[in-house]
Amino acid sequence: MHDPALLMQMFALLLVIGAFAGVLAGLLGVGGGIVLVPAFFYSFQTLGYDGPQLMQVCLATSLATIIVTSLRSVLSHNKKGAVDWEILRTWAPGIAVGAILGVLVAAALRSSTLQGVFGVFGIIIGLYMGFGRADWRLGQAMPTGIRRAIYSPVMGFMSVLMGIGGGSFGVPLMSLYNVAIHRAVATAAGFGVLIAVPSVIGFLMLEVAPETRPPYTIGAVNLVAFGIVVAMTLITAPLGVKLAHAMDPKPLKRVFAVFLTLVALNMLRKAVGW
User: Fold this and answer.
1) Beta strand residue intervals within 173-240, DSSP E
2) Distance of alpha carbon 38 from alpha carbon 83, whole angstroms
3) Sign of the CA dihedral 53, 55, 58, 63?
4) Which helix (H) or strand (E) holds 216?
5) 222 strand-pairing partners
6) Residue 257 belongs to what H/E stretch?
7) Threshold 0.90, pTM exceeds
8) 14: closest CA among 39, 50, 37, 47?
9) 147 near 107, Cβ under 8 Å?
10) 29 pLDDT tier (thresholds 50, 70, 90)
11) Residue 27 contacts by C-beta under 8 Å, 6 or more apart in sequence?
């Protein structure tokens, strides 16, 4: 039987995490995964679940929430005609293949290695958010042929290893290839679905030692965290959108970039055992 006090602590922590992730997603357009993975990690660790597969549980649970939030986002953006279905259709096979490979690799790695991966790429994403410029370009149109065949699985693969959707890699990539930012954000939500659905199916089949997983975990997906976070993000994301319209989110994006870089550095510190 699980300790009721421990379950209440877990419940309270997850309510706060879900609310925070929802506001950030609405306000800054950043995917919840970049916040959820470290938040799940520190919460579960604090509650005493610190096994060699802890990061797998965090990645899988984050990706499960992304299925719901990305689907909702794609549908709302599509009503405004902002989703580029041609990009989604042509990039889908590569992204899905990369996501499946990501699960296979993530399942084989130790939690500390995955912390290191999250730390390194979290710092890169944080630096891009802080210093990247809207007018940077690598080309005038999205890559096709061999470059697309390389980029699309790499994006799916890296996103699964970090437990994130399509926004953190997809939006900068599309922006660098001259896709208008509102179209990039809308289409990246579709990338999120393509990354999360195959990877979560894989993670549901992963065996995690019962003594190191939080209560009510199927495969590597924690159902309690999934349910609470999805419910909270659906409530608080519209609040974030309202705030974004009421104020200039650019300075806040810089603050978040610093916050993300510090979180990623801390993950990296733990990964190397300092």
Assistant:
1) 217-218, 221-222
2) 29
3) negative
4) none
5) 217
6) helix 249-271
7) yes
8) 39
9) no
10) low
11) 240, 241, 243, 244, 249, 252
**With 0-12 CB in 10 A as exposed, 13-18 as middle and 19+ as buried, what is 86?**
exposed
Return the residue matching tokens 């992963």: 206
Looking at the structure of the chain, the number of domains it has is 1
Structure tokens at 27: 């306000």
Under the banding of pLDDT at 50, 70 and 90, the label for residue 200 is very high
| Residues forming a β-bridge with 195 | none
Q: Which domain holds residue 220?
A: 4-271
Residue where the block lists tokens 């319209």 = 245
Give the Å distances, CA to CA, from 190 to 45, 53, 89, 171, 195.
Answer: 32, 28, 10, 11, 9
Taking the C-alpha atoms of residue 267 and residue 197, their distance in angstroms, rounded to an integer, is 26
Vertex 138 angle, CA 194 and 195, to 5° = 10
Overall residue count recorded for the chain in this entry: 274
Residues 212, 256: Cα–Cα separation, whole Å: 31
- List pLDDT tens digits, range 135-182: 899 999 999 999 999 999 999 999 999 999 888 899 899 999 999 988
Which has the closest alpha carbon to 126: 42, 35, 237?
Answer: 35
